[in-house]
Write a structure and sequence with these properties.
- By secondary structure, this protein is of the alpha/beta class.
- The protein contains 24 helices and 25 strands.
- The longest helix is centred in the N-terminal third of the chain and has 39 residues, at about 30-70.
- It catalyses: glyoxylate + acetyl-CoA + H2O = (S)-malate + CoA + H(+).
- Its EC number is 2.3.3.9.
């Protein structure tokens, strides 16, 4: 690849061309100023980044040595905590404070609703996610198991449709009850004297309409801060059979979407990075368009328009038609070929992301910006995989340097801190304090957090069964501490407190039953795997008034640090052989099913059938927990290399069968010698020595080999 010298830093020529021809025009920043400032940032922050990574390894070495000297369950918790403080793993709790973040859009600060995470490399998925601010409740019920049964026949199933309408209108009765009677019995809606007829029990829930007052095309309701739109059209199949002419009910659903450059993408070189940046640029400029073939027809996706309404008092009003978008940069670990430092080494990829994604975001909040994504004038960057407050402080300084470079006022670039590493969880208040002027998001993530839990304590002993992790004491403390500390630090009304992903997109009935638990914790957002799931999860935020719960939740005692630091070691490892083999197969199948698409096809996130043929949305976090679990059991003799090899071979044949209908799929059996298969086994056999148990170094190396071949 050709490189161009920019003040001693060598930038890949394709990246220079992309920045100068696509990103800088309209930004208000000149090319000379940008490259000079970027070079200064790389020179300053690259060595600091390396020092932080070296400190991670130093801490891990000391923790490994401690566990070797004190094997098994921790019997003296105070001594263990004192050790962690002595080596700098734990820091002192900061004095009570409240964050000072300003200019945050309501979708993040004061509203409660679902959040999507979408891979930045797939423009079609990105557009679907951005447009998932509004979703059809009828479609969500009709085509999923959220209601018992399923639609029959190739055409419209009237029986299923009646079932859907019955359920949807019962929800209207729950969220916006009439003064008398039921929405099921309404024969027509109209607006009289600024009020909805038939009258609502709480007239303030009526928020507006479209069309004419005596023949509205839609009726807008607002409950718990979220809108519901009743669409009226008697010319449709559904509307013609409905007494009130209701053809659909739209839910305000995915308030926010994270456009991901990290765990859900396979971006391993400069070309991949430019593709990812290009989609973010299209979102910020508002001109992202994607055409694709479906059923022999060419369809085109573009960003949805805003929604115009008439308010009850007759004034014009507009509601956002799209999710508020955040962009997830990569963490501190990986380096990129797109930028070479003065000594010829690769620069930190996270520093490049900070420069380019924020430069692109000037199309929205810069001097000539559209102010469509963020009318409040902020850029929202989620930063993953940070270990402790020193790494969070590094991000704060990096973002401040970028603000200075592109002419933004301090605090314009907001940060979401993902609470997914053990050292961050144990020092969460100090981490929040380190970015107290720009933080807009904390969340919990079971998979990555469990992966780091296992890697940190790898040498302590064998871990419990993977399925038992969610019931372990440390994770209960982790989930509760995250909310409690977030509330204590003043995040309510200024930032999101989020919870993790529902990973089974085909099990919407189970999601409706279970995921209501997330808003009940006081979290004002939680991740969902699809726009349909967002529409259904929105129901939970009508059933639970999150902000009203927080005062009571804040009074509860915060779980102790001792509980958080308890290591999930198995007390009895005398498992029957069949139990061990099932666990190995479960892990091996999950690893193979994901890796074969990552390495061979460059797919970083997709619905992967599990060992029981249940489709799960998988990304690198899933891979991390499975590979670390197998590596731990190997280290402690719970299984042998021969058992691991046998499990991989059995599961390779299973995964081949699960992908038999994919023309691009490359089978692993019977030779077991492809790059994807090699990568999967390397993740286990080299898992104990991977930095923090991360999968990126090996995945990237094997994907680069595959692309070269």
């Amino acid at each position: 690849m050709d490189y161009l010298d920019k003040d001693g830093i060598r930038i890949a020529a394709p990246l220079v061309e992309f920045v100068e021809s696509k990103c800088l025009p309209g930004s208000g920043v000149s090319a000379d100023a940008f490259w000079k400032g970027a070079a200064d940032i790389f020179k300053k922050f690259s060595p600091e980044n390396d020092k932080l990574l070296a400190f991670r390894e130093e801490l891990q070495t000391k923790i490994d040595a401690w566990h070797e000297a004190n094997p098994g369950p921790i019997t003296d918790a105070p001594a263990y905590e004192a050790f962690l403080r002595e080596i700098g793993y734990l820091v002192d709790e900061p004095a009570k404070f409240s964050i000072t973040t300003e200019n945050v859009d309501p979708e993040i600060a004061t509203m409660a609703g679902p959040q999507l995470v979408v891979p930045s490399l797939n423009a079609r998925f990105v557009l679907n996610a951005a447009n998932a601010r509004w979703g059809s409740l009828y479609d969500a019920f009709y085509g999923t198991d959220a209601l018992p049964g399923e639609a029959k026949g190739p055409g419209y199933d009237e029986e299923r449709g009646a079932q859907v309408v019955e359920k949807a209108k019962s929800l209207l009765d729950e969220f916006a009850p009439l003064a008398s009677g039921s929405h099921k019995d309404v024969t027509g809606y109209k607006i009289e004297g600024g009020a909805l007829t038939p009258a609502l029990k709480d007239p303030s829930l009526f928020a507006g309409f479209t069309g004419l007052p005596d023949a509205p095309e839609s009726v807008l309701l607002k409950h718990n801060g979220l809108h519901i739109e009743i669409l009226i059209d008697r010319s449709t199949n559904v509307g013609s059979t409905d007494a009130a002419g209701v053809t659909d009910i739209l839910m305000e659903a995915a308030l926010t979407t994270i456009v991901d450059l990290e765990d859900s993408v396979a971006a391993v070189d400069c070309a991949d990075k430019i593709d990812a940046y290009t989609n973010w640029l299209g979102l910020m400029k508002g001109d992202l368009v994607e055409s694709f073939d479906k059923g022999g027809k060419t369809l085109t996706r573009k960003l949805a328009s805003d929604k115009d309404f008439t308010t009850p008092d007759g004034k014009a009003a507009t509601l956002q038609g799209r999710s508020t978008l955040l962009v997830r940069n990569v963490g501190h670990l990986m380096k990129t070929e797109a930028v070479l430092l003065e000594d010829g080494s690769q620069a930190p990829e996270g520093v490049l992301d900070a420069l380019i994604t924020n430069l692109i975001s000037l199309q929205d909040v810069g001097p000539n910006g559209r102010r469509v994504n963020s009318p409040a004038g902020s850029i929202y960057v989620v930063k993953p995989k940070m270990h402790g407050p020193d790494e969070v402080a590094f991000t704060d300084s990096l973002f401040a340097a970028v603000e200075d470079l592109v002419g933004l006022s301090r605090g314009t670039i907001k940060v979401g801190v993902m609470d997914e590493e053990r050292r961050t969880s144990a020092n969460l208040a100090a981490c929040i304090k380190a970015v107290s002027g720009r933080i807009v998001f904390i969340n919990t993530g079971f998979l990555d957090r469990t992966g780091d839990e296992m890697h940190t304590s790898m040498k302590a002993g064998p871990m419990i069964l993977k399925a038992d992790m969610k019931a372990s004491d440390w994770i209960q403390a982790y989930e509760e501490r995250n909310v409690a500390i977030g509330l204590a630090c003043g995040l309510s009304g200024k930032a999101q407190i989020g919870k993790g992903m529902w990973a089974a997109p085909d099990r919407m009935g189970d999601m409706l039953d279970q995921k209501i638990g997330h808003p009940k914790t006081g979290a004002n957002t939680a991740w969902v795997p699809s726009p349909t799931a967002a529409t259904l999860h929105a129901i939970h935020y009508h059933q639970v008034e999150v902000m009203g719960l927080r005062d009571e939740i804040a009074k509860r005692p915060t779980p102790s640090l001792e509980r958080l630091l308890s290591v999930p070691l198995a007390k009895d490892t005398n498992w029957p052989t069949d139990v061990v083999e099932r666990e190995l197969e479960n892990n091996a199948q999950g690893i193979l099913g994901y890796v074969v698409r990552w390495i061979d096809q460059g797919v970083g996130c997709s619905k992967v059938p599990d060992v029981n043929d249940i489709g799960l949305m998988e990304d690198r976090a899933t891979l991390r927990i499975s590979s670390q679990h197998m590596a731990n059991w190997l280290m402690h003799g719970i299984c042998t290399p021969a058992q691991v090899d046998a499990a991989f071979e059995r599961m390779a044949a299973k995964v081949d069968g699960q992908n038999a209908g994919d023309a691009a799929y490359e089978p692993m059996a019977p030779k077991f010698d492809g790059l994807a298969y090699e990568a999967a086994k390397a993740l286990v056999y080299q898992g104990a020595v991977q930095p923090s148990g991360y999968t990126e170094p090996l995945l990237h190396a094997y994907r680069v080999k595959k692309k070269a071949s």
